[in-house]
Amino acid sequence: MSCPQGPPLTGSAHPTPLRQPKGNRISCSSIIPSTAAPGRSRSISAIRAVLASDKDKMTSASVDGKVLRKKLNKVVLAYSGGLDTSVIVPWLRENYGCEVVCFTADVGQGLQELEGLEQKAKASGACQLVVKDLKEEFVKDFIFPCLRAGAIYERKYLLGTSMARPVIAKAMVDVAKEVGADAVRFELTFFALNPELSCVVPWREWEITGREDAIEYAIKHNVPVPVTKKSIYSRDRNLWHLSHEGDILEDPANEPAEDMYMMTVDPIKAPNEPEYLKIGIVEGLPVSINGKELSPASLLAELNEIGGKHGIGRIDMVENRLVGMKSRGVYETPGGTILFTAARELESLTLDRETIQIKDVLALKYAELVYAGRWFDPLRESMDAFMKEITKTTTGSVTLKLYKGSVSVTGRESPNSLYRQDISSFENGDIYNQADAAGFIRLYGLPMRVRAMLEKGL
Asked: What is the pTM of this model?
């Protein structure tokens, strides 16, 4: 089957720039042999063999410095309709002689970003566009586990882009099987889902070095992409967050322009009266707002609306990317900020000191694994089992006050609360006797007393 050529390039005022790998944005076109089922085998020897033989499998020879690549039959490409994915379509056809099936996951990026995608994909040379609604799965199976774990990357980033990658990649395995493709994207994920694969990596192979090169390539190949050569922000949006990078943000000294924000209002312009919310939580996962039970995606969508109205969830940070460079990004995560505040606050009632400390330590590693694209790593899965177990008693509700960009806690309740007013009052009773403190403090301070005696020669 021969893929169609598209019409000439058309301009737009909303360009989408090429992006460097961020977190687990290490993506590629990974070959899955048509005879292999996409299972969950984790054979270390198989993975090592793949890593060692990728180059040999994907390149056949070199003539006058030009690499002759192995021919593929059909590639499933994660497609957004932006500049980068649009130029990959003709590039794959030109360099690998393959048909390209574009795949778009609806993870809550909004109807506006999904409109006209099929026409764009086919005009770029794709043979087909497959769209799958993954919103509920995304929130239930990927966002909520991270929320339960308390996973935050480098103190601020709530992992919006990183959590979306594995749910998209997982769906692509199914799409590849449905359309009979022998290649897909997302390198690290497919090492976990199926170790019998090799990789085609446009980012590492092509001679396109930036936005202007990509635009010229698009013009040459009659690819209709909505771009101009004027610099603008790079954005990634889903139901959890909206990220902004590039343009004036590349200088960490620059304050973000107010007209950049899309999910949240300026806190100064937010309502002058606070709004109170009661978030219901069962075993560490949110289930209701003000007593109304909602599905995971519906609950998050409603909190995004409420939080955005009050200017909640703006984060400006300089982060360390997986490849070693620092990057400045601005994130809007209104609903996520509300949920993280509620979940952590309820744990103050239901978890003891040692458990909270261990959970916080593991949460850092959990976030790092997710950021690095290792969602299907056995270590993350094992830590997730731990998080699920220790939050079995984290059931109750938290009342929050939203006001001009801030979220403050005004109350928390749980049937499993470890808080006892009869003990916490510090009055003498059957359980707590102030006289017990004297011996405890004397023993607890013994190491410090011994060291002081040594220093004074006593």
From this structure: 0.83
